[in-house]
Amino acid sequence: MTPSHTARWTAGWLLAAAWALSFPLLSSQPAHRLWGWCAAAGYLAAAAATALGRRREALAAALLGAVAIPLLYLVLTGRGQSEVGVIERSGRLLLETGRPYVDQPAGVGEYTPYLPATALLGVPRALLGGGSADGHHWTVRLLGDARMWCAAAFFGATWAGRRLLGAAPSPLLPLLVASPVVALPLAVSGVDLPLAGLCCLALAAASSGRPAASGAALAAACALKWTAVPAVAVAAALLAARAGGRAALRCALVTLLGTAALVLPALLLQPAQLWQQVFAFPTGRGQVPTPASSPLPGHLLAQLGPWGWYLTTGLLLLGGLGVASSLLVRPPRTLVAAADRLALGLTLAFLLAPAGRFGYLALPLLLAVWARSAAPAAGPVASRVVARSRGWVSGRPRTGSPGR
What we know:
Oligomer: single chain
Shape: globular
């Protein structure tokens, strides 16, 4: 490991620490503030260990400070973002009434802006002890918390994707988990991780020529959040380029039937609530305002009035059409290319959406990094990234760059 590489990795950990410190300084959410203090300490320790040439110890410090300590503390104390309680309430309602949504929500706290399959992640809490962690044994708190099941879905899906590809262990994976991209949502909410994992699995299955498996993963993702819909087009385009139109059509059909099976019962039982809570509310057209109000371009335009909302919606549709056209003109032929195209589409969608959060942008970054960790042979640039991270973790100097 050369001095310049050591300096870059040290600077990276310091940047992560600065990012983590912004949460206790700027955020009003207790869970974010706690994560920020713990993660900043872990990243600073990682920077110090890297500067001393102890790179494995640096990674351990980052994982401990940014993931293990805040996750366990928040789970065992029953604290976290409101999304955790929303998922667990939805699971309880599904188990008790067969309906995942509150029929007449009194305020924003009773809205569930997720599709029905998300409720399944909250069922363990209902089975193990209701909607509160107070007074429960620590094992019940761990096994019932929705974050643990979100994490299990994420890691299970990404592991399955790597198995389909026959990918060797990659040093990028623990670095990705230790980074704020995964560590923050893992500790405080977990809600977007299953979606990310299923999108990774769907692209991996499409890349390996398995249309039915890709469609099943896409159906599960689309039944969690409707933001997974762009992944269907990308996976179909990848399959069409690698295995022909019939494989792409099979994938789309499995996706459609699987999504319908998971969503249709709630649609029949609570059509008005599903529309209001899952579609109108997150886009800023619901009966109550959404708390997702980061100052992204789409939100700023939507705040200018009705014409601003229609303008940003039009720009969003144009962006979607542009990405869709690129899939027809130049379809992706590798896992990395497909992940990059999906990341581009999601980035445009999150930037131009009438309501959104900065945290949503972690999903495109996660897709791009995971694809490179699972398919390091996809190109010289990806190979060099993986080789450098492998040298960083092992602490052994490299004598050359693969792919040259």
